[in-house]
Design brief:
It holds the Pfam family Peptidase_M28. By secondary structure, the protein is of the alpha+beta class. It contains ten helices and 19 strands. The protein binds phenylalanine (PHE), zinc ion (ZN) (2 copies) and calcium ion. The site of one zinc ion has 6 residues, from helix 4.
């Protein structure tokens, strides 16, 4: 046999089998104490970068690029998949740093972000070294935690916020619509260590109300009272909110003045700004309240640990609902039955997406192999389409004789219907998509089956990926 079921495929299948049961109640996840000592060390780094680069980390100046490079290097070392996304502004080139934890369901993305740039007048330690240090430390802690994320975690460090939210706008404007739809939540952190702090929770997006309530409940559980604030278009969540994405965030205050009622519940100085150094040169490493920072980074950790595990269901994808489970084979052989070893992440054949696919035949000897999945097509379906991608390579050289075949079949009880037969004559280097109308099977439970057969010599490989049986 040319290949066997890899240990990796078995491991993935087992994990998916235990954790991937639809409808499992997600238990509240206990999140660790996020180290304020580590977050403070990140702020020291931002201060050093500013000091070494003319006193700021402003767009188009070397202190910004140095900040972006440093954050990216930390995330790279922790195992994130990172992207430095470049864009142009009137002040010069800027960059977003995007970091994705390469685990969990890529169809359900949970994001947190912060702007990484300062104004030109100072180092920007509270605005927004604090949000950046907090999001970075949570990302690093998550990577080190050994947690198995159910969903896909992504962290954004935005450039040019101070020029009008340019980085976050650039990011969302360049996301394909299908990718926007996968973002379940965006959490924003901009100024979370103000020296005369308030404890504000964003309240400007009804789609984010449950995340808002989770943040509020977290602070309440730590005996910290919060107030809602309508931040509207004043920070980077606005770009996400305008796409209809759920957003939430926290804030410890900028140029606004703390009231005496607020000073009574939060301490600090009434009649003074939450951050008297807001957008000034004195927003340096001394312009911090580390208790406020500590509480806010723990809140970020609480949200990330919990939303990483949240059950968003399989949900109908845009354009219809795919009735096939594990349709791209990325969970290994889960939900597919047939010849063992067919579902594989072997590097010998490319997947169309991800790394797994169904590789039938390719033995170069007399043999048959199959894989299939049972699926119930609703009686009320008004349309039903079977689709998949297939790539066929063959050592056969004939242009007229069929030696090796792959049949696509619908097994309906004792009746098997062959929708199509591919062979060595259909070989080609690219994946091609095939679609079939299967509405005739509405109200039935049928098996979608791929059945291969080879003759005694010269291999033909039929590689199938990204299957779908879609109903509207
Ligand atoms: N985005 C503002 C800035 O960077 C600060 C701010 C954050 C104001 C959140 C309101 C709410 O200058
Ligand atoms: Zn600012
Ligand atoms: Zn800011
Ligand atoms: Ca795949």
């Amino acid at each position: 046999m040319r290949r066997s079921l890899s240990a990796g495929a078995l491991g993935v299948a087992l994990v998916a089998g235990v954790l991937g049961v639809p409808g499992n109640i997600a238990h509240a996840v206990e999140s660790p104490d996020i180290s304020v000592t580590n977050a403070k060390a990140h702020l020291d780094q931002f201060q050093s970068i500013a000091t070494a680069n003319g006193g700021n980390r402003y767009t188009g100046r070397p202190g910004y690029k140095a900040s972006a490079d440093w954050v990216k290097s930390k995330l790279d070392a922790a195992g994130y998949t990172t992207t430095l996304q470049q864009f142009n502004t009137s002040a010069g080139t800027s960059y977003n740093v995007i970091a994705e934890w390469p685990h969990g369901d890529a169809n359900h993305v949970v994001m947190a972000g912060s702007h990484l740039d300062s104004v030109s007048s100072g180092p920007g330690i509270n605005d927004n070294g604090t949000g950046s240090a907090g999001v970075l430390e949570v990302a690093l802690a998550y990577a080190a935690s050994g947690q198995t994320a159910r969903n896909r975690l992504r962290f954004g460090f935005w450039g040019a916020e101070e020029l009008g939210l340019l980085g976050s706008k650039y990011y969302v404007n360049n996301l394909p619509a299908a990718e926007r739809d996968k973002i379940e939540l965006y959490l924003n952190f901009d100024m979370i260590g103000s020296p005369n702090p308030g404890y504000f929770v964003y309240n400007d997006n009804p789609a984010g109300n449950s995340a808002r309530d989770d943040l509020t409940a977290y602070f309440t559980s730590k005996s910290v009272q919060t107030e809602y604030i309508d931040v509207q278009g004043r920070s980077d969540h606005a770009a996400f909110r305008s796409l209809g994405i759920a957003t939430a965030g926290t804030f410890t205050g900028a140029e606004g003045t703390k009231t005496s009622a607020q000073a009574a519940k939060w301490g600090g100085t009434a009649g003074q700004a939450y951050d008297p150094c807001y957008h000034r040169s004195c927003d340096n490493i001394n312009n911090l309240n580390l208790t406020a920072l500590d509480r806010n980074i723990d809140a970020i950790g609480h949200m990330i640990w919990n939303y990483a595990q949240k059950d968003y269901g399989s949900g109908p994808p845009p354009g219809g609902s795919n009735l096939l489970l594990n349709p791209g084979f990325e969970s290994g052989a889960v939900n597919w039955t047939g010849t063992s070893g067919v579902v594989t992440n072997s590097s010998s054949k490319p997947a169309r997406s991800g790394s797994y696919k169904a590789w039938l035949q390719g033995n170069g000897s007399t043999s048959t192999e199959n894989t299939g999945q049972s699926v119930a097509i609703p009686a009320a379906a008004t349309a039903a389409t079977l689709s998949f991608w297939i790539r066929i390579d063959s050592a056969e050289t004939t242009s007229s004789v069929v030696y090796d075949t792959l049949k696509v079949q619908i097994v309906d009880g004792g009746t098997t219907t062959t929708l199509a037969t591919y062979s060595n004559l259909n070989k080609g280097s690219a994946y091609v998509e095939k679609t079939f109308n299967v509405l005739a099977y509405k109200g039935k439970t049928v098996t979608v089956k791929f059945l291969g057969a080879e003759d005694s010599s010269l291999q033909t490989s039929f590689v199938v990926d990204d299957t779908a049986l879609t109903v509207p």
